[in-house]
Each structure stands twice: as C-alpha cells, then as structure tokens.
C-alpha cells in the first residue's frame, strides 16, 4: 500500500534517503578534538568533551567525541609497554638483527629463558591512547616501564621449539651461585643434554653474566645466544608469559597465598599447547625484519 501511495504522490517507487540529525560540533571544534587527541594520546574522551564545553558553552557528550575520532580512524587502543631505547641501543638491536636476518630453521635450535615475577594481586591498568591503525610503535603511544620488586612469586622457565623446561620457583634473591645450583645444574643441563643441538638464550641480568656462570657454560660447552639489552620484544618467551598470565586471569577467585599462586602458574605453564609455542618460534624472522625496518625500534610483537 505504501508503494502505491508513493507512486501516486511522487511518481516513483524509490525510497527517500533517511535524514540524519545535524552534528553537535562544528568543523572547527572537530579539528580541535583531533588536535587534542593527537597531542596527548592518553587524553580521555570525557576530558576532551569537558574542554570543548568550556570553550563553546554547549554540551558535548563523550560518545560524540569518540564518534568524531572514529570518523578519521582514531580509536582508543591499548598502550604498548616498552623499555626506553636510546640511539645506541637501537643501533645494537639493528646490528643484532642484521646478523640473523637470514635465520629460519636456526631459531628452532634456540632455547629461550626468562625469570618473571608474578604478583598475588594483579591490577590490569590498561591505559588506552588515541592512535591510527599501524601507529602502535610510535613513541607517544608507548608507556616506558622499569622493572622493580613487587609482592608475589619469582619463577624461571624456558621454551624450545619441540618442548619446554618445567618452571622453577625462585625463593628470595637469585644470585649467580644459586642460578647455577638451583636452575642450571638440576634443570637446564639435563634438558640441553637431551637435545642434539641447542643455543641457549639468557638476558643480561647480572646473575646470568657473572664470571662463575660464564665458566659453567664454557665447561659444559653450552653455546650462548648474545642478547641486545632492552629487547623483550624479540623473545617469544615474553608471549608465552602473556599466555600464562591470561590463563591466570581466567581462574577465579584470585589466588590467596603464594603457594596457591605457584600451583596455578605451574598448571597454566604446562597447559599452553606446544603448537602455540612453535608458532611463536616461526614468527622470529618477522620480528627480526620488523626491528630492522623500524631502525632498531620495537618489533610490535
């Protein structure tokens, strides 16, 4: 019936386009909204709305601010956490990647290791910043973090392409002698001896680079992978730790004691499928290429 009426009244059966309400901000205000979001990437939509209202004296909602920014492909995304990189560190990272840019199967021989502190009470402070797609590694979109003590447990673990080393719980402060007696001798050495070839990765933490530790590696003829400072983004075990952390957040209620936390961490570590670990190893050439193309900056992985 409506089609007949439209034909009689308008001489056509085509539907008229729906009208849209006028924008609540002017083009000048839109430019100011974008300028605020790009100048201070962590500013909230509510703060921008309050500023616009104080200048123009008419109310603008935070939802309207988000819509304006999304119209130019600016969305609130998670802030990338990273250690600060000096020009010298970027140069060393680029050099390290240049030397391994042709590695493919060689990565499968590397055993990546890491110590991590896991807190009893984890606060997920996911700060968001305004950025375009592809701007994740901009310096203004990175929160530089520094390591420091926190209440919880310290664990050590290692991953290889075909298997992983069981987690080790570290009590107190780990020095070079304890690193040998509690980690290398009982866990690392038997694991490496079961492999036909292996390249052992360790970061530049002081217990790892002590002379007594280096002598241990020399005496047991363990090949080491040199590692550039401030380069967690190059290590796939960082992603493994993120998988473990994600599994921990899904366990409710939160662990009440360090012993209970250790049981959950140990279970989460073992539950990650080896296929997921292998996919991380297979991404190593891309990590290396990303650092090279970014002039020693973050890989984005």
Automatic annotation (TrEMBL):
Any one Pfam family match given in the protein's UniProt record, by short name: HTH_Tnp_Tc3_2
InterPro entries: RNaseH_sf, Tc1-like_DDE_dom, Transposase_5, Transposase_Tc1-like
Annotated ranges, domain Tc1-like transposase DDE: 110-250
Residue span, Transposase Tc1-like domain: 30-101
Location of the region described as Disordered in the Swiss-Prot/TrEMBL record: 8-27
GO MF, one example: DNA binding
GO BP term (any one): DNA integration
Protein name as catalogued: Transposable element Tcb1 transposase
Lineage start: Eukaryota, Metazoa, Ecdysozoa, Arthropoda, Chelicerata
